[in-house]
Amino acid sequence: PLVLGIETSCDETGVGIVRGHTLLADAVASSVEEHARFGGVVPEVASRAHLEAMVPTIQRACDTAGVSLTDVDAIAVTHGPGLAGALLVGVASAKALALSLGKPIYGVNHLAAHVAVDQLEHGPLPEPCLALLVSGGHSSLLKVTDITGYDGGVDPLGATIDDAAGEAFDKVARLLGLPFPGGPHIDRVAREGDQVAIDFPRGLTGRRDLERHRFDFSFSGLKTAVARWVEARERSGEPVPVADVAASFQEAVCDVLVRKALDAASSEGIEDLMIGGGVAANSRLRALAEERAAQLGIRVRVPRPGLCTDNGAMVAALGATMVERGRTPSPLDLPADSSLPVTEVLAG
Ligand code: ATP
Ligand code: MG
Ligand code: FE
């Protein structure tokens, strides 16, 4: 099926077009520059930017794909989770398209789309697979037996109990004086640093913690440890070795993510690990996962960095899977749901 997907959950206006598992277009307009001086995404600014970018981004996607809107078989849209006002722009636009074209609409979960997108690069998702979902607002380990969410197909084994991994990257970048969003900057600066220079804490990996939180994450203690370390340096009048701090912090995050993801896969007897979400773009996370998984005979799938961060293609990919599996389209009055749980993949 030819599916057009719309993504507006945060600051990226994404419109993707796929034919089955083939990516035809992935147009993204970001308002990130408008938020940078505030050090975080400003919801009202994001909503307005989506309104302005929507029509031109749809046009650009159609031009790139060489299709016209009337060729499209179905519309998919992120209906949650995310910023309420931002989601509404996408949902309203998708409804308008579906209604005027007389085509079905699929309201899908942004987090499941971060997983489904890998099909565009590496073919059908192995099911079951273990998905490590690491993004700006979420960090979870999911057992995926059906990415459309059918019959409990997306089952959370664990999640962060405080900050998301991407949030930790952004906060630590900020205290190191790096621009927003900080993940890519930490990734870049860390290449010049020593990852064993500073021994930062690995959250929820102690024996007692593992009893209750084996597959959960915690990054707020790490963020505080980095802040304390930097403050102590500044007080002593010595320069802060930014590259070493970045590399050591990044190592602490990636070490825990990979350790717990592989532990979960092994304990479930699952041989395929998928990593998705913006933090999956991190070069150290990708390398460490490959290295350790190979030792256990576990295969790793990570989309290319451009498909890890928010985009419309991921929404189209999940929409195409809904069509292929004969799932019932969403009602035309589907709502936006800012706090949609990861288990609810398709709006019913
Ligand atoms: P969610 O998907 O939870 O709703 P989101 O959509 O805002 O959150 P994504 O776009 O999926 O988030 O991911 C953005 C996050 O990914 C940011 O926190 C950003 O710093 C982080 N990120 C992007 N690239 C990298 C990288 N190379 N290394 C580490 N983090 C990165
Ligand atoms: Mg973004
Ligand atoms: Fe996201």
From TrEMBL:
EC number of this enzyme: 2.3.1.234
Domain of life: Bacteria
Binding of substrate, residues: L133, V134, S135, G136, G137, D170, G183, D187, N282
GO cellular component, one term: cytoplasm
Organism: Nocardioides albidus
Protein name: tRNA N6-adenosine threonylcarbamoyltransferase
Gene name of the record: tsaD
Subcellular location field: Cytoplasm
InterPro entries: ATPase_NBD, Gcp-like_dom, KAE1/TsaD, Peptidase_M22_CS, TsaD
UniProt function note: Required for the formation of a threonylcarbamoyl group on adenosine at position 37 (t(6)A37) in tRNAs that read codons beginning with adenine. Is involved in the transfer of the threonylcarbamoyl moiety of threonylcarbamoyl-AMP (TC-AMP) to the N6 group of A37, together with TsaE and TsaB. TsaD likely plays a direct catalytic role in this reaction.
TM region(s), chain numbering: none
Gene3D superfamilies: 3.30.420.40
The reaction(s) this protein catalyses: L-threonylcarbamoyladenylate + adenosine(37) in tRNA = N(6)-L-threonylcarbamoyladenosine(37) in tRNA + AMP + H(+)
Cofactor annotation comment: Binds 1 Fe(2+) ion per subunit.
Xref: PROSITE patterns: GLYCOPROTEASE
Annotated keywords: Acyltransferase, Cytoplasm, Iron, Metal-binding, Transferase, tRNA processing
Database matches in CDD domains: ASKHA_NBD_TsaD_bac
Chief localisation class: cytoplasm
